[in-house]
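User: My instructor asked us to take a sequence, write out its structure as tokens, and then describe one feature of it. I'm not sure where to start. Here is the sequence I was given:
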Amino acid sequence: MGNTLHTVDEQVSYIATESTWIESKAIQQLQTTANLPDMVSVVGMPDLHPGRGYPIGAAFFSTKRFYPALVGNDIGCGMSLFQTDIKQSKVNLDKLEKQLSDMPDHAPLAWLDDNVPNDMKSHNFMASLGSIGGGNHFAEFQSIDEILQPELFAEIGLSKQQLLLLVHSGSRGLGQSILRQHVETHSHNGLLDDTEDGKKYLQAHQDALNFAQVNRRLIGLRMLQQVKANGELRLDINHNLVEPCRINGIDGWLHRKGATPSDRGFVIIPGSRGDYSYLVAPQPNEICLNSLAHGAGRKWMRAECKGRLSHRYSPIQLSRTALGSRVICANKQLIYEEAPQSYKSIETVIESMVDIGVIQVVARLKPVITYKTSGEC
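Assistant: Let's start with the prediction itself. The structure tokens for your sequence are:
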């Protein structure tokens, strides 16, 4: 693993090459988290960056108790990849942009009634299904730019001639409500796994995981219907969750906060909205808590993005990227917060994981058009 795995102390490590941007505050947050009761091991991924008290882009392994605050407010956030029947050679970007710009951020109730599974139609948060939300969530049509491992690529059954659709979203307001209820009762303290409070949280957590998975499928369906296309779900993975696991012979709880599982087959690791994404074949590794980066990772705090960029770029300019793709984001604050410049280089993130031997890059995907919001989030 050479100089890519950095050991801070007995409990804390992080993955980075010399060219990977890692803030000292994020490493401090790793150390703070490692001091929580019953915490065994904490590993920062190469997209590691500071969060609100706890780092994002990290995995945490504890015994006897787990920590809802480490999972955060977007339980079940993850990535879904759809194979579409849109031929890359026939894409009209102007038409595609117009079609998607006309799509409202929230699904009409009549559409939800027709498409939401029956067991979710009485859910308190049903009205949020099929909506992407704010922050770094998005839906993006992509083309296959380069295939690096043809045999592995063939296993997934994707077509190089047709566009893919990548959806990144989670449990919307449901996850927020679950975390808020926990914090109101327990502050940021963990829950012992054999208690009623622990079991109650895990039931709510599972509901949010199911909700997030259905939400991504409905977002994909809406996007495809909007452009009069069809598609099939090929990959789906969560990167915000807690689950029981066994690491180095110890039974405990693995928390992932912006960390992609490496023990569930092929995954997508996206760049920023103006950069490539990567289809990778993971190699499970307990030293890394069987986890990978979930994206490029932020370089700048959201509050500083507009000040850094507004004198150089207008929102219209940011809706066109260096790779020739387009971004639909009518929220002027958000388009600055999510500008490619505010993120790390995805190449350095991928390089770090290749160096440490936890992934093989199967293919590189190029953005065509990214949908974030047609109005206010």
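For the description part of your assignment, you could build on this observation: The chain has eleven helices and 18 strands. Try explaining in your own words what that tells you about the chain.
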